[in-house]
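FYI - complex with iron/sulfur cluster, inputs then prediction.
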Amino acid sequence: MTELPRKKLFIKTYGCQMNVHDSERMADVLRPFGYAISDTPDDADLVVLNTCHIREKATEKVYSELGRVKALKIAKAEAGGEMIIAVAGCVAQAEGEEIMKRQTAVDLVIGPQSYHRLPELIARAHRARGERLAADFEAEEKFDALPADRQPAGVTAFLTIQEGCDRFCTFCVVPYTRGAEFSRPAAAIEAEARSLVARGVREVTLLGQNVNAYRDPDGVGLADLARRLARIPGLARIRYTTSHPADLDDDLVRAHAEVEALMPYLHLPVQSGSDRILKAMNRAHTVETYLKAVERIRAARPDLALSSDFIVGFPGETDADFEATLGLIQDVGFASAFSFKYSRRPGTPAASMGGQIDEAVKTERLARLQALVEAQQRAFNAAQVGRSLQILVERPGRHTGQVIGRSPYLQAVHCEGATNLIGSIVPVTIVGAAHNSLTGRLALELA
Ligand code: 5AD
Ligand code: SF4
């Protein structure tokens, strides 16, 4: 197929790691058809916006980006060329053909279940200029239809094991956009992991919207899946995200004590530190059960570092509720965190709740919360100075003779070292810490 003319593909990814992963898979399915990734939309033959719907701002960003891409499409048409614009991801899922009405330059709208059909749909859009397509949004077995010989981007890779969410937090669109929970068979995941390792991958991050609810058709849960994957020779590190505190079962906790490859870093969103708000959010956990979960997992793996998601300004959140969230952050101590102002998502229960919070109050609370978690993150990073950490070397650094790797706690570590170390796990003495990264010195002279 090498004779095919090269076509330029630009993909812009918004939102979560699931989307980052889906974008890689879209590039994989399109590669055999002559599409090569371009880092700019100018002059691209195909522009894909892989969108996120989780907060209103994310959706609005997509529409303004579409406006910019439309101008490029017009310029290209005037020069006698052709550009196809596709909208993928959760905005596509949620708004469907509405997008084509609102932005007439869009040729194709495609939901997350139909990515394996991208080449066919693009070919159709090319053949019949002016035909505008909205791909089916029913759940299909999209995974198995994607090529198995995907090219991993480096020594770390994402591997989707579960999609969808049945939890229905009252603020969240995911159960509507990504649908019901669905887990892939463990055997298929293991086969994909083996093929990734054969291509040089040393670390996999298992992805799912509610990943620890993973249970395959044969009853294999996340803990057993991790045990199975840990036996693959060459696969050194396993991570998983995103977990729900109420689905952290004892077996998974035990796996953190037993399975060396399971990294001591867990993203465990709590959202709020007030039971009243957690109840209104339909989170299915309380502050106490969250703290208990943290205690259980830290008992199994004492060096485990935690990160979390927080929402400030959920409807009805009082100053006291917010202070309780700050209190929880003080009590737990996080290595990092994501925090958001509550954003009203049409169709979710919280959107029509009374007691919506003023934007200014949300802004102020967010700033206070972020200052606290940033201080914790800095302290966590600073605490690594002087320690020796096992670093998985991932890529060259900005300057020659430098490489960048990851600590077990997902911190980026910059150090002097040759690029032939990429893919190795090496001991590094941490000598400096900044807000977002560490610097280190190779502990051994490695030829
Ligand atoms: N408003 C603000 N934040 C939200 N999140 C999900 N939905 C909303 C919303 N409507 C946040 C949650 C979730 C993360 C992925 O995004 O904190 O854990
Ligand atoms: Fe959304 Fe809640 Fe499901 Fe997470 S657990 S995806 S916040 S509904």
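The pocket of 5'-deoxyadenosine (ligand 1) is lined by residues 54-55, 171-172, 269, 271, 309, 311, 340, 342-343, 345 (CB under 6 Å). The CA atoms of residues 43 and 76 lie 6 Å apart.
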